[in-house]
Design brief:
Elements lengths: L1 H20 L5 H19 L3 H18 L3 H24 L2 H19 L2 H38 L1
Helix pairs in contact: 1-4, 1-6, 2-3, 2-5, 3-4, 4-6, 5-6
Length: 155
């Protein structure tokens, strides 16, 4: 339940950031985000997945910072440590998630470049839902792995 609550709060905050950032997207902000995403992709191609995940977090933190909403940024910062732990575990258990993150960030960046608020909101929502699906599958798999052991103890 705590993990689901975490993802619900994260979704509300990240979608708000997506809605707010569009009005602040000038050439400098877009260039910074493009560069951050390019660096993440370079880490990915080099097989430096820790570097990729670190740069991925910085990319999303930069989007929040660009909203110029200090409270929103603080609230996102407060939950990102928890999200980071869950996300890192998910990626370790399901390596293809890295490539999905790469593609999801490309979609987010494409919407940012166009300054297309609805497309950005859609891309962020898709990114969050896919992440939630992986985490929930991981939890379900972990729970189902324990069921036979618990049943064996009761027998």
């Amino acid at each position: 339940k705590d993990v689901l609550d975490l993802f619900n709060v994260r979704e509300a905050l990240e979608l708000e950031a997506a809605r707010e950032v569009v009005v602040y997207l000038d050439d400098d902000v877009i260039a910074e985000l493009v560069e951050m995403n390019a660096q993440a992709e370079a880490y990915f191609r080099a097989g430096d997945y820790e570097g990729f995940l670190r740069q991925n977090r910085q990319f999303h933190e930069a989007i929040a910072a660009a909203t110029q909403n200090r409270l929103l940024r603080q609230m996102l910062g407060a939950i990102h440590d928890r999200v980071r732990q869950v996300g890192t575990l998910t990626v370790k258990m399901h390596k293809p998630r890295l490539k999905e993150l790469l593609e999801e960030n490309r979609q987010i960046l494409a919407a940012i470049r166009k300054k297309d608020g609805p497309a950005l909101e859609c891309a962020v929502r898709s990114h969050l839902h896919r992440g939630r699906q992986h985490v929930m599958r991981m939890i379900t798999d972990a729970n189902s792995d324990r069921i036979p052991i618990d049943l064996a103890r009761e027998a």
